[in-house]
């Protein structure tokens, strides 16, 4: 028995924002735009959304203070603006950070939640959410998850509820044309980790596996040419794969890679995708033991022979190493073992397993 839920209406392709007028109009008469400080202004996504809103006679107000790995404090600030302005819906424009922030801002516009309740619920329905991705990695435009930096807990944590599914996802690959090389690599590997982890997760389903294999197929043909200028056709494939991988984790969730990656981001400053990339080869060695058939299928789709072959490729793509003291390893292991990612993983994950993976990626 399994269930499948995907209530988000997806528009995909060049110029898709302008085609969504009827659906956007139905959401209300005033929007809060949630963005980072620069990229949405530079890549044309904010202008496209504003043009649509103004053509529909919809008022809008801008909140552009979202940082990388947005904090609880930031989303509370955005929600305060939304309530003050009396907005009807929220539009998140950007990579995972603005889209994740927009989800929780929409939630806090309708819910009075302290920090504990924010991550646990229960919740009343948020304002309607529109997600406009401008990177190809998180798939947040089609998920029920928002990841925030919780400084009081000293790590990143997830707000998760079916209520957080965006009403609309407007995925235009042309907004990603000028994404820097490092971000292109990080986000592509983030999408890859979503597809692989969801495929391997205990909660995977026959439906999510179809999307996972399709996402890996579109990513696999481009893994060796993520550097330099990428033509639109490649950018389109990467965004398509990212969106599919978002659907995968929305159904099946993430596993050990994400649980172990969050401390690396919070304490060591690694981007989310780069942290995942460092961990994936070691994770796949576990999967070769516990899920040999699926692991073999991953290598078949991606064009690698095994985890060692994949690890060599990833070392070339992401040659960074991370400084981890024995104290870091012990701390991060303890943090990881408290997360749901351990239970979601199709392997008997012990503290020793986690510790050994951290030791394998350090300098």
Automatic annotation (TrEMBL):
Keyword Amino-acid biosynthesis in record: no
Domain (Fe-containing alcohol dehydrogenase-like C-terminal) ranges: 184-318
Molecular function per GO: alcohol dehydrogenase (NAD+) activity; metal ion binding
Gene3D superfamilies: 3.40.50.1970, Dehydroquinate synthase-like - alpha domain
Domain Alcohol dehydrogenase iron-type/glycerol dehydrogenase GldA: 7-173
Source organism, top-level taxon: Bacteria
UniProt keyword terms in alphabetical order: Oxidoreductase
A Pfam entry, by short name: Fe-ADH
PROSITE patterns associated with the record: ADH_IRON_1 (PS00913)
Name assigned to this protein: Alcohol dehydrogenase
Organism: Megasphaera stantonii
């Amino acid at each position: 028995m399994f269930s499948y839920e995907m209530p988000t209406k997806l528009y995909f392709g060049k110029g898709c924002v302008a085609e969504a007028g009827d659906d956007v109009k139905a959401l209300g008469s005033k929007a809060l735009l949630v963005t980072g400080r620069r990229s949405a202004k530079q890549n044309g996504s904010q202008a496209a959304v504003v043009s649509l809103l103004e053509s529909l006679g919809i008022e809008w107000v801008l909140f552009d203070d979202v940082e990388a790995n947005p904090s609880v404090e930031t989303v509370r600030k955005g929600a305060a603006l939304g309530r003050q302005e009396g907005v009807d819906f929220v539009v998140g424009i950007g990579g995972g950070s603005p889209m994740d922030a927009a989800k929780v801002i929409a939630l806090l516009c309708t819910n009075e939640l302290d920090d504990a309740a924010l991550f646990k619920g229960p919740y009343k329905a948020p304002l309607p959410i529109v997600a406009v991705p401008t990177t190809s990695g998180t798939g947040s435009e089609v998920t029920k998850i928002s990841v925030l930096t919780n400084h009081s807990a000293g790590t990143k944590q997830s707000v998760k509820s079916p209520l957080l599914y965006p009403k609309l996802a407007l995925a235009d690959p042309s907004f990603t044309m000028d994404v820097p090389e490092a971000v292109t690599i990080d986000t592509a590997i983030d999408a890859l980790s979503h597809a692989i982890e969801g495929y391997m997760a205990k909660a995977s389903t026959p439906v999510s596996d179809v999307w996972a294999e399709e996402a890996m197929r579109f990513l696999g043909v481009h893994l060796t040419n993520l550097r330099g200028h990428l033509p639109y056709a490649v950018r389109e494939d990467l965004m398509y794969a990212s969106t599919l991988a978002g659907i995968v984790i929305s159904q099946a969730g993430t596993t050990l890679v994400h649980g172990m990656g969050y401390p690396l981001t919070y304490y060591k400053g690694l981007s989310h995708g780069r942290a995942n990339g460092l961990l994936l080869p070691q994770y796949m060695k576990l999967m070769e033991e516990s899920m040999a058939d699926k692991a073999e299928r991953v290598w078949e789709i991606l064009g690698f022979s095994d985890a060692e072959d994949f690890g060599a490729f990833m070392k070339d793509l992401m040659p960074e190493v991370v400084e981890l003291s024995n104290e870091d390893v012990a701390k991060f292991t303890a943090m990881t073992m408290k997360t749901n990612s351990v239970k979601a993983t199709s392997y008997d994950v012990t503290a020793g397993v986690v510790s050994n993976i951290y030791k394998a990626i350090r300098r």
